[in-house]
Design a protein that fits this description.
heterodimer, A: alpha/beta, 7-stranded mixed β-sheet, 5-stranded mixed β-sheet, 16 helices, 25 strands, about 25% helix, about 20% strand, B: alpha/beta, 4-stranded parallel β-sheet, 18 helices, globular, binds flavin mononucleotide, binds iron/sulfur cluster, binds FE2/S2 (inorganic) cluster
């Protein structure tokens, strides 16, 4: 790769790459507002100036240049910290602040605002602008975001976002000169499903997420990397939380999955993470009509006793799971049925789903499959079909043992009715639902923000979650529950962490072969053996 | 004693001239076009290069060189766009051409189209120029009726269409890349360069934007002995005649066609007939409102690109605004700065904020709230727009401010001295 120099240090660049892009990629810091790697370059904020002391031909550039718009060149030497550059930044920052309300104390962006950061570095303590500032009213610009135009620095990122990324053209720049401002075109709130991204890319507190407004100062938030489970795309996210409460999800860059973006629906899944009312708090056992608190040991013992009484096998045993279950959980439940009952009856719903085909990448983000692990189920050959025909046929006979993971077939009354008379129904899950109502034993699982597991997204990338918030005291991750259940039935399962489960799964499943849990890392890994999902229908995006 | 040299205004200055197609043809019009169709496009470009003609739109960039940058064989159409947005304060020369001799400009434009391989040229004309729009529309209709435009002009087989597009009243749309955005139906805002229009211009295709007067020079340059004659009208590197928009406190304001080796003094006192009402000269804005102001002591200089650049100002669009000793330069600067504050597109930080802020400071002086500190601040704020913006409007706003403060500081002080 060709090389140029930033402050005397060599930096590699791709041919045609801009100075700023190469600098940021190599961990160098150059202030910028209007530049965003995912959108067109406008070079209008003018804060990213650098001093090109050698253009690569021995001659310097005649004046400071904007790093975002000038191509890096072999032999080029730039300085980013000399006095000329500092003065160049200072003057831009002064201009940006003269009309800025400086209402940081009540602004949600405070603490993650680049204007605030750069002002701290390059600003002056005193303003020389002694006229009244430009003032606009608050605007309700969208279902998900709100606009405080006084804070806007006219970087046009938001404008470019609806033009270049969503293609919805709902938002734009109005008026000229000093009165240049942003607003929706139709005078109506935006309806695109990706508005939260506009709050992310707005460098100041002009566009903020309604859901997050006034809830927490950002410096109090702790951040963990994870993935969104709102749909089978599995956008990479950071989950931001404080004192065991989740406040928001922010997209994390992954060029193979969601680039820099995620949808608003996915952001809202933070609410589920805080949901307590419908959570299953502790193991429960049925006594007559009612479920009663029991201990884990009692639960496992009760199950083991009933099973040894019945000696069920083959079609007398069935497991139902949803595709919110992780790869490891799906693998283990399948293993348990095989080892314990010589049964292959693990079923999950696999309805048809639609993938939009669109030149705007972001429109392909959100899918109609609202579960995170359909591809995992397919890779592990969990049974299922669009009409749930096979599962219905299988449960026609007499059932002895049913294990339900999560909330599968929630709208299939026929299946629920047929399961009800089974002699032993065990429900493993984080939330109460129709299955916990009919179960004989209920075992409290964990939501994905509380455990470390992997999912396989629609592009057949394996991605990992992380433990973000502390789980309920008496809950356990589902994979551990299945392992313990197997042990209580006398099987020698010796998995003590998720890495070991993953390793065994990778050893036994073609799709995962050669992948280890640690390899998945920050950006996920493509399955080693991919396959075609016949349930997917590619639809044209609306023109 | 300076006098006009008639090249572009040859017809206009002829009282019997009729600007119709017939009249223009009678005066020898479209003869050169016929000759040009017999040349190779590269030869046309080379001839234009040889003539040394520099763009009359303000930047003075050599036109032949600009055309030679147009890439060939890209598989995309090439465009030539006439910049008829003429909005630089003080400038009113393109309007003269379009109103009074539209075919001269159109012939030039057609030559340009042939040179750069453009089959569909656009004329982006200032929206307020109603009579000029009418004049051009009539002329273009005549050309289509005559077959000079369309599939086969003059039997050349070079299909050529021309479209007149009127702007919506923004000065910034005279800046070539903003013009292109506006022509594409977008908000007129300058683009980042590079890529320059020659590489990616109108609809992303190779494009050359040329001023009306620049194009109007083509029939002469490509005519017989045109190059040598054109070069003889001025010193080296400043060839040709140019249309000078002379305005302000002179006795005879107007648009004059002059060689490039005429002294400014002769223009003011000879051509312009001197200062009105027996007043003395105080200063001149030499090249449209964007250029640095000159004091009366500085006007003994040749009025061309290089000589004005030597004294830190510029020829710009050759629009001289002359003002006399009674002029309140603070008000004058306020008027100019108000213009830029109003016309800034607003995308660059320094220009958006700086034009408005400096206008407020100047108004403070007018309101009796000036001070030494504010004068320093005005100079600083103005200077902070210089060279820090995306297009040249920031410079255009900065140069008058800095030069007025430097050259007429006492006029500012008068506003607050007695307080
Ligand atoms: C703010 C601004 C306004 C301009 N307005 C005009 C204009 O009204 N007419 C024009 O011909 N050129 C104008 N220009 C210059 C054009 O950008 C461009 O240089 C010119 O049209 C090129 O033609 P030329 O090479 O024939 O001069 C303007 C430039 C700037 C920066
Ligand atoms: S609202 Fe934010 S993103 Fe949009 S122009 Fe203003 S500062 Fe930039
Ligand atoms: S697109 Fe799907 S995975 Fe991504 S954030 Fe939205 S719901 Fe979540
Ligand atoms: S980041 Fe380069 S000008 Fe805005």
């Amino acid at each position: 790769m060709p090389v140029f120099h930033i402050d005397d240090e060599p930096v590699e660049f791709h041919p045609g790459e801009k100075i700023l892009s190469a600098a940021l990629r190599n961990g160098k810091k150059i202030p910028h507002y209007c530049y965003h790697p995912g959108m067109s370059i406008v070079a209008t904020c003018r804060i990213c100036v650098v001093d090109i002391v050698d253009l690569g031909n021995g001659r310097p550039a005649p004046k400071l240049q904007t790093a975002c718009s000038v191509d890096a060149a072999e032999g080029m030497k730039i300085e980013t910290m000399n006095q000329k550059v500092e003065e160049g930044r200072k003057l831009v920052n002064e201009f940006l602040l003269i009309n800025h309300p400086l209402d940081c104390p009540i602004c949600d962006q405070s603490g993650e605002c680049t204007l605030q950061d750069y002002s701290f570095e390059y600003g002056s303590g005193k303003s020389e602008m002694d006229y009244s500032k430009r003032v606009y009213g608050w605007r309700d610009i969208g279902t998900f975001v709100s606009l405080e135009r006084n804070r806007c620095i006219q970087c046009s990122r938001c404008d470019r976002f609806t033009r270049e990324i969503t293609g919805t053209n709902e938002f734009g720049m109005f008026n000229r000169g000093h009165e240049l401002t942003v607003d929706t075109y139709t005078d109506r709130p935006m309806t695109n499903k990706f508005q939260g991204n506009m709050a992310d890319i707005c460098p100041v507190g002009a566009i903020t997420e309604k859901e997050f407004r006034f809830k927490r100062r950002v410096w109090k938030l702790k951040k963990n990397r994870s993935i969104c489970t709102g749909c089978s795309t599995g956008c990479n996210v950071t989950i931001e939380h404080d004192r065991n409460e989740v406040f928001r999800l922010k997209p994390h860059e992954n060029q193979n999955v969601n680039k820099w973006w995620m949808c608003d629906e996915g952001r809202l899944t933070y609410q589920i993470m805080n949901e307590r009312k419908t959570r299953i708090n502790r193991p429960l056992g049925r006594v007559g009509q009612n479920l009663q608190d029991i201990s884990w040991e009692e639960a496992y013992r009760a199950i083991a006793e009933r099973i040894s009484e019945m000696e069920p096998t083959g079609n007398e045993v069935i497991a139902l799971t949803d595709t919110h279950a992780s790869n490891e959980e799906l693998f283990l439940i399948k293993k348990l049925l095989k080892d314990g009952f010589l049964s292959d009856n693990v079923f999950c719903p696999l309805p048809k789903w639609e993938q939009r085909e669109s030149e705007f990448f972001i429109n392909t983000l959100i899918t109609t499959d609202k579960t995170p692990n359909r591809a995992g189920a397919l890779a592990l050959k969990i049974k299922g079909d669009p009409g749930n025909v096979e599962v219905k046929n299988t449960i026609d006979g007499e059932l002895k043992v049913v294990i339900v993971l999560g909330n599968p077939f929630e709208t299939e009354h026929e299946i629920q009715q047929k399961i009800k008379p089974a002699q032993l129904v065990v429900h493993i899950g984080a939330y109460h639902n129709c299955w916990s109502e009919i179960a004989d034993v209920v075992l409290p699982g964990q939501y994905y923000s509380e455990k470390k597991v992997t999912f396989t997204n629609k592009m057949q990338h394996v991605q990992a979650t992380d433990i973000v918030v502390q789980a309920l005291r008496r809950s356990r991750p589902e994979w551990q529950i299945i392992v313990e259940l197997a042990q209580s039935l006398g099987h020698k399962y010796s998995f003590s962490n998720i890495n070991q489960v993953f390793a065994e799964m990778a050893g036994e499943t073609k799709a995962f072969s050669g992948i280890s849990f640690d390899q998945i890392g920050d950006q996920g890994m493509k399955l080693t053996q991919t396959f075609k999902d016949t349930g997917m229908k590619l639809v044209k995006a609306p023109a | 004693m300076a006098e006009e040299t008639l090249v572009l205004f040859k017809n206009i200055r002829n009282p019997k001239y009729s600007k119709s197609l017939e009249g223009y043809k009678k005066a020898g019009g479209y003869h050169t076009l016929k000759k040009v169709f017999g040349m190779k496009p590269e030869e046309v470009v080379q001839t234009v290069k040889d003539s040394g003609v520099r763009g009359r739109g303000g930047a003075g960039f050599p036109t032949g060189l600009k055309w030679s940058f147009m890439p060939k064989g890209t598989g995309k159409p090439s465009y030539l766009i006439a910049n008829a947005d003429e909005s630089e304060p003080g400038t009113c020369k393109d309007r003269e051409l379009m109103l009074k001799d539209p075919h001269l400009f159109l012939e030039g434009m057609m030559i340009g189209c042939y040179a750069v391989g453009c089959h569909h040229g656009y004329i982006y004309i200032r929206g307020e120029f109603f009579p000029a729009i009418k004049s051009l529309n009539t002329a273009v209709e005549e050309l289509y009726a005559d077959g000079l435009l369309g599939p086969d002009p003059l039997g050349s087989g070079f299909h050529l269409d021309l479209t007149i597009h009127s702007g919506a009243g923004a000065y910034i749309c005279g800046e070539e890349s903003a013009l292109l955005d506006s022509l594409e139906g977008k908000r007129g805002q300058p683009r980042v360069k590079p890529p320059f229009p020659a590489v990616s211009g109108f609809n992303g295709c190779p494009t050359s934007v040329n001023n009306v007067e620049t194009l109007a020079c083509m029939p002469f340059i490509l005519g017989d002995d045109g190059v040598d004659a054109f070069k003889s009208f001025g010193p080296q590197n400043n060839s040709g005649t140019h249309l000078v928009s002379l305005s302000g406190h002179v006795k005879k304001p107007g648009v004059y066609e002059l060689r490039m080796d005429v002294n400014m003094k002769d223009i003011i006192y000879g051509i312009g007939g001197g200062i009105r009402n027996g007043k003395k000269l105080k200063g001149v804005i030499p090249g449209g409102s964007s250029s640095s102001v000159m004091t009366a002591d500085e006007v003994d200089v040749l009025y061309n690109f290089d000589e004005l650049a030597k004294i830190d100002t510029m020829l710009g669009s050759s629009a001289m605004m002359v003002f006399d000793e009674d002029t309140d330069v603070v008000q004058l600067l306020h008027r100019i700065t108000r213009f830029y504050a109003h016309e800034s597109c607003g995308q660059c930080t320094p220009c958006r904020e700086g034009t408005h802020w400096s206008r407020n400071i100047i108004r403070d002086f007018l309101n009796g709230n000036g001070s030494d500190e504010k004068l320093r601040r005005l100079d600083r704020v103005g200077g902070n727009m210089l060279g820090t913006t995306l297009c040249a409007l920031g410079d255009a706003a900065a140069l008058p401010i800095q030069s007025f403060v430097k050259k007429f500081p006492d006029d500012f002080r008068k506003y607050y001295a007695n307080k």
